[in-house]
Specification:
single chain, rod-shaped, 3 helices
């Protein structure tokens, strides 16, 4: 946005000199406003970059640590379950494997979200660099306009036209400043949203840790019950052996009392077809 003004010699009228001094004051104020905007924008963007990068690093480190702890815990539990031959323990192993895959998928989603956040941060960096470039170009334009102000010799009407141009440039810079404020507010809202998402993820991880502790307690109870059942089975087997010996002994005693060899016989009368005239009566 070029800024042009009339360079007046010592012989110009008093009204033109006062107008020229007012223009110089306006240009100086514009430069000061641009410098303040530049420094404020640089500081704001630098703070935003540092905050976003620190949040990303903390979130990635915490998620990786939790994943390592979760994997080691799950592997230990799977190894303990693999040493058991009980069908119930096998089903528990499958259930834990599914839980591990679910946790890995959730971690993968979290990493993808982190990557998306990093992409947004890189976009904001690019935008900051573009704004920095525009500010540098504006500074170059201001220096050029100062040189042109010393060289140009035009009428008062041209001077007024150039003043209107300067006013338009200031309006444009004001609009850009408002846009930058809106972008800054939007980035702050996004940061709050990311913070809420991180808190939700931490709460979910806490719930999963509680569920893991509960499942471990259930496994311990199941193993204790299994041991108790095994002890009861052994006691019942020993009792069954004793009762079986007693039964055999009593059976043998009954057989001895009844007699080992017994013959049963039943007498029936002679049938008609079996009768013979010379036959003797049968006993």
């Amino acid at each position: 946005y070029p800024l042009c003004a009339l360079a007046v010699s010592d012989e110009r009228p008093v009204s033109t000199q006062s107008t020229w001094g007012g223009l110089e004051l306006e240009v100086k104020r514009s430069k000061d406003a641009l410098d303040n905007l530049k420094s404020k924008t640089e500081n704001d963007m630098k703070r935003e970059r540092e905050l976003h990068s620190e949040e990303m690093r903390q979130m990635i480190s915490t998620m990786e640590g939790k994943l390592r702890d979760e994997r080691t815990a799950r592997r230990r539990e799977v190894e303990e379950l693999a040493s058991k031959n009980n069908e119930a323990l096998r089903t528990q192993k499958k259930y834990f494997q599914r839980k591990i895959t679910d946790l890995e998928e959730s971690l993968e989603d979290s990493k993808n979200r982190c990557d998306s956040f990093s992409g947004k941060l890189s976009k904001s960096k690019i935008k900051n660099s573009e704004l920095q470039q525009e500010l540098d170009e504006n500074e170059e334009l201001l220096t050029k306009n100062k040189k042109e102000m010393r060289k140009l010799k035009e009428s008062l009407e041209q001077y007024k036209a150039e003043c209107s141009k300067v006013q338009g440039v200031l309006d444009a810079r004001t609009q850009e400043r408002n846009l930058l404020k809106k972008d800054n507010a939007r980035l702050q809202e996004e940061g709050q949203t990311y913070t809420m998402q991180i808190e939700n993820m931490e709460a979910r991880c806490k719930k999963r840790d509680e569920e893991i502790v509960r499942l471990k307690l259930e496994i311990v109870d199941f193993e204790n019950n299994n041991k108790n059942l095994n002890v009861q089975i052994t006691n019942l087997n020993s009792k069954l052996e004793k009762e079986e010996k007693i039964r055999k002994y009593l059976h043998n005693e009954i057989q001895t009392l009844k007699g080992n060899i017994r013959v049963f016989c039943r007498v029936r009368p002679v049938l008609k077809k079996e009768k013979v005239p010379t036959a003797w009566p049968l006993v």
